[in-house]
From TrEMBL:
The keyword Chaperone applies. The gene is grpE. Keywords: Chaperone, Cytoplasm, Stress response. Homodimer. It is found in: Cytoplasm. It comes from Novosphingobium pokkalii. CDD domains: GrpE. This is Protein GrpE. Its main location: cytoplasm. The lineage of its organism: Bacteria, Pseudomonadati, Pseudomonadota, Alphaproteobacteria, Sphingomonadales. Residues 1-12 have a biased composition (Basic and acidic residues). The keyword Chaperone applies. Belongs to the GrpE family. Participates actively in the response to hyperosmotic and heat shock by preventing the aggregation of stress-denatured proteins, in association with DnaK and GrpE. It is the nucleotide exchange factor for DnaK and may function as a thermosensor. Unfolded proteins bind initially to DnaJ; upon interaction with the DnaJ-bound protein, DnaK hydrolyzes its bound ATP, resulting in the formation of a stable complex. GrpE releases ADP from DnaK; ATP binding to DnaK triggers the release of the substrate protein, thus completing the reaction cycle.
């Protein structure tokens, strides 16, 4: 087909438009362009809404991460200090009762006890709390059973001795309590 020849469907379209005044043709074209612009505007609005929602979600995640970082920043340091606290408690326990009243040791014992209270106060200020263990049922989320001992006095699965204290920092486990658990006697 040559350029001068008209295609059949083009001829039909031209025939339809031949009877339409020129200003209506322009209005129809403007209406189509307006409809396309409105559609583009709606798409852009949706994109903006999605972008705002995503930005808000990212901001919330970052705020949570920052809050967690503040709350749990001392976790590693706290774990290290627990061994200092344990050693202090062992030192106090190792002093016999008769030496606690001796004038030479009385000031030493008082100083060690004051240091222990200060450590407990600092732990409390930072949300570090001791896990209850003795006399409670074994909780594998907070207790680590080191041994099972036959016992007729206690229910099986009950913690009967605490070998090492356990601690949490805020709502997270810092160190499980190492415990001895009762079992049925043989």
């Amino acid at each position: 087909m040559s350029d001068n020849e008209t295609r059949p469907h083009d001829a039909e379209a031209e025939a339809e438009l031949a009877g339409v005044p020129e200003d209506l043709k322009e209005q129809d074209t403007a209406s189509n362009e307006l409809a396309a612009l409105r559609e583009s505007l709606e798409v852009a609005k949706q994109d903006v809404l999605y972008a705002k929602a995503e930005t808000q979600n990212v901001r919330r995640r970052l705020e949570k991460d920052i809050a967690d970082a503040r709350a749990y920043a001392a976790t590693s340091f706290a774990r290290d200090i627990l061994s200092v606290s344990d050693n202090l408690a062992r030192a106090l326990e190792s002093i016999p009762a008769d030496l606690r009243e001796d004038d030479k040791f009385k000031n030493l014992v008082t100083g060690l006890e004051a240091t222990g209270r200060e450590i407990e106060k600092v732990f409390g200020n930072h949300g570090i709390t001791r896990i209850a263990a003795k006399g409670l049922p074994l909780d594998p989320h907070q207790h680590q059973a080191m041994m099972e001992v036959p016992s007729a006095e206690h229910e099986p699965g009950t913690v009967i001795q605490e070998l090492q204290a356990g601690y949490t920092i805020k709502d997270r486990l810092l160190r499980p309590a190492m415990v001895v658990v009762a079992k049925k006697p043989d």
